[in-house]
Specification:
By secondary structure, the protein is α/β, with parallel strands linked by helices. It has helices at about 10-15, 30-45, 55-60, 65-70, 90-100, 120-125, 140, 150-155, 165-175, 180-185, 190-205, 215-230, 235-240, 245-260, 285-290, 295-315, 355-365, and strands at about 20-25, 45-50, 80, 105-110, 130-135, 260-265, 280, 320-325, 330-335, 340-345, 370-375, 380-385, 390. It has an 8-stranded mixed beta sheet with strand order 7-6-8-9-10-11-13-12, sandwiched between helices. The protein is globular. The two termini are about 25 Å apart.
């Protein structure tokens, strides 16, 4: 096993000092169990229980209060419960104990489904749970480097060529992705076998277990394939290509969102944008396997680094949008932060043609953001004109 420190640990420790219950959410195979079991529980001598074990799951469902009290030594010792969403009755018990005992950092829980979208859980956790999100490994984590908030420099217009990240590391991440069990394998065929197994688990096991709708694993798999190949497709577009009802496709997309498999990119309407929501897969290795083009892999890289760095820096979540007008894309990604909008154009070539420059110059007049940054596989950053800068991908990783 190749253990890598995860930047999220500092954020978890902060939340343990503020909340009775701390939750770590993330998609299957992003490293939640390894993080909680091997990087937190073992070094600190904490009890680690996983509801993936049938006997433990049965006990947690049948006698949730005695399960929690015996495991925490009457709520005096911190425990970690992995895949806690599999026993929703636990959350009512945790709510009562959190209110009665008022002990911070008593329980850590993980889930590969959004707790807020599970019946019987979201109401119990209000005000008592400190949530954080684990993303696929960033390039910095892959290289075992200290945390660096590269996106903070761009947001504050402090662009510098100094970056420990290399173009080789970027290319490797685009090829292998950031899911620990998959990306560490050098053999491409083995990686693809694990990706296929991951897809099967998501579509045919995890998705049908969600409450509130009937899910079809085959349709979910087709939806993921369409998102990989056509990342600018809307829900109606996907439904039309598949010959399916839009409402049925929408339900499956919402289910895949709840499992953190895809990201929703909504249109930026505050400055006159229009159009539909678009979607992105969480990992480039999965997207490549499903037929994505390299340009779209770069988009996944940018989204992962932005979301992960903001989460692990303590700035919290950001909103990811696209800007388009009458169906024509103007800006690939607009990141809404506390400091304002960050406009990003995703480019897969080192050179920028005049057509793209003219399109971006037109977008500048719309006041979407103070500056527009063109991310490309170049070596150094270059000022194209005032408010329009070309930046290497490596500088923000």
């Amino acid at each position: 096993m190749h253990l890598r420190d995860r930047y999220i640990i500092d954020i978890i420790d902060k939340k343990l000092r503020a909340f009775a219950i701390v939750g770590v959410l993330g998609a299957r195979q992003v490293g939640k169990s390894t993080l909680l079991r091997d990087l937190i529980a073992k070094p600190r001598g904490l009890s680690y229980l996983t509801l993936d074990r049938p006997n433990i799951l049965s006990e947690a469902r049948a006698q949730p209060e005695s399960f929690v009290l015996s495991s925490t030594e009457d709520f005096s010792k911190t425990i970690i419960v992995d895949e806690a969403h599999k026993a929703p009755t636990l959350f009512d018990v945790l709510k009562v104990l959190a209110d009665e005992r008022r002990k911070r950092g008593a329980v850590m829980i993980t889930g590969s489904v959004d707790f807020m979208k599970v019946d019987g859980i979201r109401e119990a956790l209000t005000g008592r749970l400190g949530l954080t999100r684990l993303y696929p490994l960033t390039i910095g984590e892959m290289a075992k480097r200290p945390f660096r908030f590269g996106w903070g420099n761009i947001t504050e217009a402090k662009i510098a060529d100094e970056s420990p990240c290399t173009t080789t590391e970027v290319d490797s991440w685009l090829e292998r992705g950031g899911m620990p069990a998959i990306c560490q394998l050098g053999d491409k065929s083995l990686r693809e076998e694990l990706i296929e197994e991951w897809l099967q688990s998501i579509c045919y096991r995890d998705l049908p277990q969600l409450k509130g709708a009937r899910y079809d694993g085959a349709l979910a798999r087709e939806v993921l394939g369409l998102i990989a190949k056509f990342p600018e497709a809307s829900e109606p577009d996907i439904a039309r290509r598949l010959g399916e009802d839009t409402r049925r496709v929408r339900r499956h997309i919402q289910g895949l969102e709840a499992l953190f498999v895809i990201y929703r990119i909504s249109p930026l309407r505050t400055v006159g944008g229009d159009g539909f929501d678009r979607f992105s897969l969480l990992d480039p290795a999965v997207a490549r396997y499903l037929g994505a083009e390299k340009r779209d892999l770069y988009r996944i890289l940018v989204i992962n680094e932005i979301l992960a760095q903001h989460e692990y820096s303590g700035y919290g979540p950001v909103s990811v949008h696209h800007y388009s007008k009458r169906g024509r894309t103007k800006i690939d990604l607009v990141i809404a932060t506390k400091r304002g909008n960050l406009a990003l154009a995703i480019h897969h070539q080192a050179t920028i043609d005049q057509y793209l420059i003219k399109r971006l110059e037109h977008a500048q007049k719309l006041n979407i953001a103070s500056d527009i940054h063109v991310l490309s596989p170049t070596v150094e950053h270059f000022k194209i004109r005032k408010g329009l800068v070309q930046i290497p991908y490596r500088m923000v990783c």
